[in-house]
Amino acid sequence: MDIPSSLAIxxxxxxxxxxxxxxxxxxxxxxxxxxxxxxxxxxxxxxxxGFITGVGVMTLLVLSFISLLFIHGFGRAGVPLVVWAIxxxxxxxxxxxxxxxYFRREKGTKLWIPRPFAEHLTDRxxxxxxxxxxxxxxxTSVIGELIFIIPSMIISALVLLQLPSLWQIxxxxxxxxxxxxxxxxxxxxxxxxxSISKIQKWxxxxxxxxxxxxxxxxxxxxxxxxxxKVVAEVSGAI
Amino acid sequence: xxxxxxxxxxxxxxxxxxxxxxxxxxxxxxxxxxxxxxxxGVPTGHADSISRRITGQVSEWLVDKPEVTxxxxxxxxxxxxxxxxxxAAYLYEHHRxxx
Lengths: 238, 99
Known about the structure:
The structure holds two protein chains of two kinds. By secondary structure, chain A is mainly alpha-helical. Chain A has eleven helices and no strands. Chain A has helices at residues 3-19, 22-36, 41-74, 81-101, 115-127, 131-144, 146-161, 165-179, 181-191, 196-205, 207-237. In chain A, helix 2 (22-36) runs antiparallel to helix 6 (131-144). The relative contact order of chain A is 0.22. The model of chain A has no long low-confidence stretch (mean pLDDT 95). By secondary structure, chain B is mainly alpha-helical. In chain B, 58% of the residues lie in helices and 11% in strands. Chain B has four helices and three strands. In chain B, helix 1 packs across helix 4. The mean pLDDT of chain B is 88. The chains are: A mainly alpha, B mainly alpha. Chain A binds chain B through residues 22, 25-26, 28-29, 31-33, 35-38, 106-111, 113, 115-116, 118-119, 121-122, 193, 195-198, 200-201, 204, and chain B through 13-15, 32, 34-36, 38-41, 44, 87-88, 90-91, 94-99.
């Protein structure tokens, strides 16, 4: 796989990551509570940035950790094709699961994550008053949606390991920045005075489309990687 | 007609949790309505005035009710709030269903 194709896969995986909504929901709640508690606009922005930094740091750590596991597991010999095939299978499986289960069928933007975890995040977003608490809330919210983002991270790690060192760092940085794009957009909207209720209404009105797009993009990613890596190498060997 | 003390609010948190109950607290309701209004960009003074009006209407609604659920209370307050500020009513009613 050449460098442009590899980076294109990482960028697509990062956009899929960005389309998942748990962190966006937590940021909406956090900002709503901060505005409702009559905190200054500067404080609301500091909390938002603390949260986004936490999400970015945890995304960076998880992606680096997965890459490290592959390096330790398979060393210089390279990752076997069977691991690529399993990773593509995981992407397909989670893609279909996202189509079927991502948002709950009731009103609002409730997600299929364990309810105690969702209640914990909801309560913590209300109790958060300092930027450092917002940072740790960001770290936690990435763990909460790990089940949905793990396939795109695994594929990205596999692809990045094949690149030269400089491109690996570029790829990781690009992945983290793009995965934060949804949060950056919401934070900018809130910072520029847009109503939280209008943002939340938009999210609720378009949740089925976002669910379809995220699941469909995961299937497309899995198919593309399977064909360009597994099928290409197997047919090349024959 | 309910002649006793303040109305009991029955709260239920998630599956498998026991119901809790507490007396109706107008201040608590006023604060949560103000928060919803401020989140929608309503000026502070206007938010305070809307919240006082809604809390008064809800208190009247509760007069003949010895016990209501927190969901009923939230729905009723949102119903009254809708006439003053639909966006704030939406946020107030659905804030527990964001995540």
